[in-house]
Amino acid sequence: MATRYWVVSLPVQKSASSLWSRLQESISKHSFDTPLYRFNIPNLRVGTLDSLLALSDDLLKSNSFIEGVSHKIRRQIEDLEKVSGILSSSLSVDGVPVDSYLTRFVWDEAKFPTMSPLREIVDGIHVQVAKIEDDLKVRVAESNNVRSQLNAINRKQTGSLAVRDLSGIVKPRDLITSEHLVTLLAVVPKYSQKDWLSSYETLTSYVVPRSSKKLHEDNEYALYTVTLFHRDADNFRSKARERGFQIRDFENNSETQETRKQELEKLMQDQDSLRSSLLQWCYTSYGEVFTSWMHFCAVRVFAESILRYGLPPSFLSVVLAPSVKSEKKVRSILEGMCDSSNSTFWKTDDEGGMGGFGSDADAHPYVSFTINLI
């Protein structure tokens, strides 16, 4: 599937059908590997010259915005399919692949009445796409919030002993809690274990001798217990901190642990649900944005062709997908389809000509702009 297309309109001197036949013949003869399609645009409401000029000033900016939203949703779909383990498939619009929707474009009269002013159609498309973009931001933020909460929990479960949840490591039998005694949990750097074992009993006056036991060790730290009198706990925390030992707070409460487990399960379910919902929304919204984008492009071709070739509307609009190596040849063919006076008149601004209206590329003696599907 091609991902880069040119939308072009050529001035009709005699008839659109004869120009189309000439173009087909020339492309087939000199650039046979370039796909060529008719881009059928209905007779739209022209309005005044002033309104067309004002509209033309906004077309390029609006196109960039709509194209950007389309790509943003597409990237979101690719990301969601990847993390969900879904085999990526070609996106479709109204049941057909996106490239086919472009190359077989048919104006939707019910959605975009041709008697509506061009400005009304363009503004309506812009408002609709802007609303979809806002919805996307809200949905992505909601999904990211749940993912952040899960990541925080996972860090606590898989991080170092300095930050991870200790409920899966510390058992009730490891702790002593009585009227006078309490067991604290000390996180000791691996390289300081000898220092801990030789000093913990003398950090304060009321530590139970030989009460420290190693419960767990990771790449950075070791987790030790130490039993002492309740009244000495705060002083011991302070002295331990001065020696580079961290005393971890820990609550041995089965109800709290069960609550955390339920919260984790709910977050995982929420993540799966939000991810699935967001993916389905993106599929639908991408189709809506792409449909609006192609109608916008049709309006753009029509408006720029009127400004370029004058009234009454008499032009042939086509879609091409030339390879990079064929671009110069195709440009030459297209220019040859315009009469010599038109070709001479429409040069780039640097060459003293009038240039193009709302052009997003070098000026040509015909209307031309690029559509990037990706």
Automatic annotation (TrEMBL):
InterPro entries: ATPase_V1-cplx_csu, Vac_ATP_synth_c_sf
Keyword terms of this UniProt record: Hydrogen ion transport, Ion transport, Transport
Record has Lipid biosynthesis as a keyword: no
Pfam families to which the protein is assigned, alphabetical: V-ATPase_C (PF03223)
GO cellular component, one term: vacuolar proton-transporting V-type ATPase, V1 domain
Cited function: Subunit of the peripheral V1 complex of vacuolar ATPase. Subunit C is necessary for the assembly of the catalytic sector of the enzyme and is likely to have a specific function in its catalytic activity. V-ATPase is responsible for acidifying a variety of intracellular compartments in eukaryotic cells.
Name of protein: V-type proton ATPase subunit C
